[in-house]
Amino acid sequence: DDLDLGGHAHFMLKEIHEQPAAAAAVIAGRIDERFGTTRLGGLNLTPRELRAFKRVKILGCGSAYYVGQMGAQMIEDLARIPADAEAASEFRYRNPIIEADTLYIAVSQSGETADTAFAVQEVQRKGGYVLGVVNVVGSTIARAVDGGVYIHAGPEVAVASTKALTNMGIAFAMLAVQLGRVRDLSVADGKRILAGLQAIPGQIAQVLADAEPAKAIAAELIKGDSAFYIGRTRGYPVAREGAQKLKEISYIHAEAYQASELKHGPLALIDEQMPTVAIIPDDELADRNLAAGEQVLARKGPLVVIAHPGVDVSALKVPTIRVPKNEPELDPILLTIPTQVIAYYAALALGLDVDKPRNLAKSVTVE
Length: 367
Ligand code: AGP
What we know:
Layout: H1 2-5, H2 11-17, H3 19-27, E1 31-32, E2 37-38, H4 47-52, E3 55-60, H5 63-79, E4 83-87, H6 88-91, E5 102-108, H7 114-125, E6 129-134, H8 140-144, E7 147-150, H9 163-181, H10 187-209, H11 213-221, E8 226-231, H12 235-250, E9 253-258, E10 276-280, H13 286-298, E11 303-307, E12 320-322, H14 331-349
Parallel strand pairs: 3-4, 3-5, 5-6, 6-7, 8-9, 8-10, 10-11, 11-12
Antiparallel strand pairs: 1-2
The structure holds 2-deoxy-2-amino glucitol-6-phosphate.
């Protein structure tokens, strides 16, 4: 009802705006300034045990899987352990090899997603150790795992997940720091990431305050039946999640591509009817990402950009949303926020049921 909506038109918008507070909640009490590390109390692993893992495998479904991909990149960057993410819905069916020196992590907002819960069982049956990154306290996955991190996002009602995903990203960053600090991550680098984490709540508020161009961008996207989201390396999971959000609530087909792969096929689809959303972080690939944007424009494809302030997009002359820069490892968390707002305004402009999209349930408890 109106009371629960807290003055917002939809739960999704309410939950988008709860993100600064939710982000602060997942960090609170878990930072150890002195030693440049995090204190995640529920891992049930000693530093020695934490250090013994040789690989990390993250399992989740849908958007949780895409955030898992961000998490795997953070873990590789900060802890220098090979890490990857896989759709939990596929993992359990392919007779996966379970290794005692791999750390498995199940990520789920609801903690009730059947595919993810079964993946946890499959790992445990074969002797693997599984951590949970879960929102709902006492949920099936939270109870099944060997240890874990609650993400403290608070109740999420809208089918399209927003604040839970942001908090999952932050939880992965904190886990990556803790894994890193029992390995080769220096105190100084640990402190650098901690400072970046503490800046996130305020920066999310800034993104939301500056998100006005999202309405015009949404208006552009709803003209077509289909859209591309492009990004590279750290920008790629952002593109995947952005495309997912648009699909879920606006029913516009959207596909994420590595910008580097455009020329290997999908460029053939670019024309006046096919808009592209380019994610352009201020990193060593910015020039290449800008060049990909130019290729889209050269084929008359409408282009919109989500970029850091340091990226010079002036030559493109296209609608742009600016996102504050953080530490490179943490950038995907903030770059994702405008994609939520764009999807929201697209669904709103199309008159669709933003909070309860057709054919979808908040938690998928069947296989
Ligand atoms: C997110 O917007 C989607 N509704 C969906 O992909 C979701 O993330 C997925 O079903 C996993 O749900 P969970 O986090 O509750 O396990």
